Amino acid sequence: MVATLLQYLDETKVEAGCDEAGRGCLAGPVFAAAVILPKDFYHPLLNDSKKMSEKSREILRPIIEREAIAFAVATAAPKEIDCLNILKASILTMQRALDKLKVSPEHILVDGNRFISYNNIPYSCIIGGDGKYASIAAASVLAKSYRDEYMRALAKEYPQYGWEKNMAYPTKKHKEAIEKYGVTIHHRLSYKLF
What share of the chain is helix, strand, coil (3-state, %, to 5)? Predict the structure, then answer.
């Protein structure tokens, strides 16, 4: 099903959409992206990244990167997540992505219901925003595809956890591997791991 995404909340402002990937994972960083799209950007595949196939995300990623006015991707490491908690780490990661944008936004659209004021720029938290606004959907695609790529590379070093398939989400296989082999430096020790 093709999503009907809104292209902006306020046509008069330069808007950046923000989203993260990997909040519920047991290992690896949380990734976030910030994307400023042209007001007329449209692609029929664009949707909430969780509702898209991996192939569709891989098709869209270079298109978003090429056509975006600005985009950036950032991370927070497992130790930061353990120190701050996942909500604060996710917000920090979105703010790191905003820091890296080559164009400063005048308004920030955030997927979810929580954010912390960033550089006095007005922001709107939108629950389910990755399925409502094109810029947030684009950020969700970048965050998810970059994180998946990272976890696939990490899986080569730690093949027993199946990260190339589960991306470190709490699947039965992942939990059983933690019980059998223990934790790695990439696991989030503040999480219930098995």
Answer: 45, 20, 40
Within 13 Å, how many C-alpha atoms sit on residue 112's CB side?
A: 17
For residues 18 and 109, what is the distance between their CA atoms, to the nearest angstrom?
A: 6
One-letter amino acid at 27 equals: A
Amino acid making up residue 2: V
Note the pLDDT tens digit of each residue in 42-71: 999 999 999 999 999 999 999 999 999 999
Q: How far apart are CA 128 and CA 98, in angstroms?
A: 20
The answer to whether 31 and 49 are in contact (CB under 8 A) is: no
Tokens of residue 166, six digits? 């589960």
With a threshold of 0.90, does the pTM exceed it?
yes
pLDDT digits (tens, 9 = 90+) for 105-152: 999 999 999 999 999 999 999 999 999 999 999 999 999 999 999 999
Domains of the chain: 15-181 (3.30.420.10)
Distance CA 155, CA 45 (A): 28
Burial grade of 75 (CB within 10 A; 0-12, 13-18, 19 or more): buried
Q: How far is Cα 23 from Cα 25, in angstroms, rounded to an integer?
A: 6
